[in-house]
Amino acid sequence: MSALARVGSLAIVMLLAAGCAVPSWMPLIGKSKPSPDPGPPAASPSPSALAIPRERLPESAGVLDRVICVVNNDAITLYELDEAEAHFLYESKQQTTDGEARQQLRQRLLQSLIESRVQLQQAEREKIVVEDAEMTEQLAEIMKRVNVSSPRQFEDLLKTQGLTLDGVKKRLREQIMVQRVVRRKVTLRISVTEQEIDRYLHENRDKLETGLEFEARHILFLPEAGKGDEGWEAPRLKAQQVYALLLEGQNFKELAKKYSEDGSGKDGGSLGTLKRGELAPEIEAAILRLKPGESSSPFRSQVGYHLFHLDSRESLSAEALAQTRNQVRDILYRQKYDARLQEWLAEIKQRAIIDIRL
């Protein structure tokens, strides 16, 4: 099959992949993982987008068709590597690079080709098969996505792209086989528990609540200027004395009006309505450790000694919390999936005989 046919076939299979059973973010053959929030799905490409322009493809198959790697008994040719490079540059809208950058890119692409081969070989060893009826169904889905209504129109479209139906079927069958072996060896072996979600929420609560509002007050005692460490002793003692009054049940606002040494005192120590992230981290942390209606013990900051009081705090709504839990489940699942996939690929590559001749 020509380079155009192989790259075009890969484009069609990638088009179909969005409709397969595995999650759309899972790494496929030669594809890097997208960001956690990929945004709305791209529209189905037009028929003209199913193959890369011919000027992007290697020109001299006679020169390029030499073996550069053998994976067990399966050969990878230089032509296939150039083809993969052309496809990558076309998909990523990048220009051809030279020197060290290009060599690094080609090494990464070669590793992707190797990983594709060992996965397919593993699927064959596990006797994974794709029934003809399923192939017919999947091809019908592709035909629907590229706006053709009959097999004859589809074959005509393939011919205009330099493709053959047999070539498309072969690549599609291999793609499904790889997805199934990955599902068997990776997807079905990982899970995320509610306890893991709870732990993630606890460890990342501050980040998750950024932007939520709270209302707080303080009573501030300023150090005596020019006295160094000695200047902090008087405000420390004052803070302790007023804290003792709070423990006796006296009103925080009234104590703030009487004792606070900053401008908030006249407003009962009110700091107003604040959003998470607006105060210095150590001060915000001291306030948000409190429950609504609770006051703190003396706290020293760079400004002076404080007594804090939390009036109220906004929490994630039940709906937002449920949505957040689902997002956290996805994050943890992706982490586990990536780790397990790389572990499994390392295992099967280690068992394979890989002879790189590039």
Count of distinct structural domains: 2
Low-confidence stretches: 1-10, 16-57, 59-64
Could you estimate the helical fraction of the residues in percent? 40-55%
| Strands side by side in the biggest sheet | 4-3-6-5
The CATH topology of the largest domain = Triger factor/SurA peptide-binding fold
CATH homology-level superfamily of the largest domain: Porin chaperone SurA, peptide-binding domain
Question: Largest sheet, if any?
Answer: 4 strands, antiparallel
Count of extended strands? 7
Please describe what this structure looks like.
With 358 residues, this protein is α+β, with helices and mostly antiparallel strands. The chain has 2 domains: 3-192 and 333-356, Porin chaperone SurA, peptide-binding domain (Triger factor/SurA peptide-binding fold, Orthogonal Bundle), CATH 1.10.4030.10; 210-313, Chitinase A, domain 3. It has 13 helices and 7 strands. A 4-stranded antiparallel sheet has the order 4-3-6-5. A 3-stranded antiparallel sheet has the order 2-1-7. Helix 1 (3-17) packs across helix 7 (165-185), helix 3 (78-92) crosses helix 4 and helix 8 packs across helix 13 (318-351).
Question: What topology emerges from the helices and strands here?
Answer:
Layout: H1 3-17, H2 61-64, E1 67-71, E2 74-77, H3 78-92, H4 99-125, H5 132-145, H6 151-160, H7 165-185, H8 194-203, H9 205-208, E3 213-221, H10 233-247, H11 252-259, E4 270-275, H12 281-288, E5 299-300, E6 305-313, H13 318-351, E7 354-356
Antiparallel strand pairs: 1-2, 1-7, 3-4, 3-6, 5-6
